[in-house]
Amino acid sequence: MAGAPRSRGRLVLARLRSSPGVVVGGSLVLLLFLLAFAGPYLTHWRYTDIDYTAMRQPPSARHWFGTAGLGQDIYAQTLRGLQKSLIIGLLVALLSTGLAGLVGACAGYFGGWTDRLLIFFVDLMLVFPSFLIITIISPQLKSSGWIAFVVLLAAFNWMITARVVRSMTISLKEREFVRAARFMGVRPMRVIWRHILPNCASYLIVDATIAVGAAVMNETALSYFGFGVQPPDVSLGTLISDGTESAATFPWMFYFAAGLLVLFVLAVNLVGDGLRDALDPTADAGRRPSRRAARRAARLPLAALAEPTTDVKEPA
User: Fold this and answer.
1) In this structure, how many other beta carbons lie within 10 angstroms of the beta carbon of residue 128?
2) How many CB atoms within 10 Å of residue 311?
């Protein structure tokens, strides 16, 4: 007797565990988070400390990643920069994905003038050169700290996702369960929250995962040009900016921060690709079977031959 079909959660979990990209990328992300938040406790140097007796010194037992131009410990500064970049990337991804889901679902569900007004605003935001606007506004927000910088990044990182969610909502609102909820008098925002957004969750999860890497790259680029995290705080972008001129002569001032940035973005993209395949209900159509499944399928004919069969007498 055939086994009962696996539930959606168990199927997604099995796909995730069988995906090399998710395993490798997830392990790297976990290790980077542990390094960023637990690593500073392994040394007594803080990112603001200065060792005037060791300026631009290579990695040693005293300073594991070497020192900067004024004697700052590169290990402490790199981990502080990794902390700041990870926090900014996560917050930007959560804010932008949440805003995109809400705007796109409302536009697709309500339709009419609400749809036209929201999509006009989305198209208007897409026309604006976001990098130029952020570089103009961010100097005015230096006194507000990096939280204002997070809001500014999230404000220009949600429009494409909103248009995709709108298209998904237009098709979802004609489904039977949504029609039944409307017929029962459920309020529109409750229908969006209970029925529309959960059915868009697969796409939103993947988008948020990839948006983390994109937000870290955007923060790094803006901080590199001096429009992001401001001194005395540091981020991977500021460390890369400070170490660029010395990359050839004092490589430890540049390559540790740059290497962690590349490693994190690569790991996040691997996780995002794996999540997309795991949450896609049609992903099995073009997927190669695993070796275990192939061996199991290869044994089926032999098992069938081994089973007892009923002799059929030929007619005389």
Assistant:
1) 11
2) 5
Supply 207's token pair. Answer: 């988008």
Calculate the CA 209 to chain-centre distance.
2
Contacts with 140 (C-beta within 8 Å, 6 or more apart), sequence order: none
| Residues forming beta bridges with residue 72, ordered by sequence position | 50
With vertex at residue 41, the alpha carbon angle to CA 82 and CA 244, rounded to the nearest 5 degrees, is 35
Token pair in block for residue 292: 């275990």
pLDDT at residue 70, rounded to an integer: 85
What is the distance between the alpha carbons of residues 8 and 86, in angstroms, rounded to a whole number?
Answer: 31
The pLDDT of residue 269 is 86
Closest CA to 169 of 114, 96, 92, 90: 114
* Average pLDDT, consecutive stretches of 10 residues, N- to C-terminus, the chain (316 residues): 54 76 89 93 90 88 89 92 90 93 93 92 88 80 78 89 93 89 89 90 87 86 80 86 86 91 90 77 48 48 45 46
pTM above 0.85, yes or no: no
| C-alpha–C-alpha distance, residues 279 and 11, integer Å | 9
Q: What pLDDT score does 148 carry?
A: 83
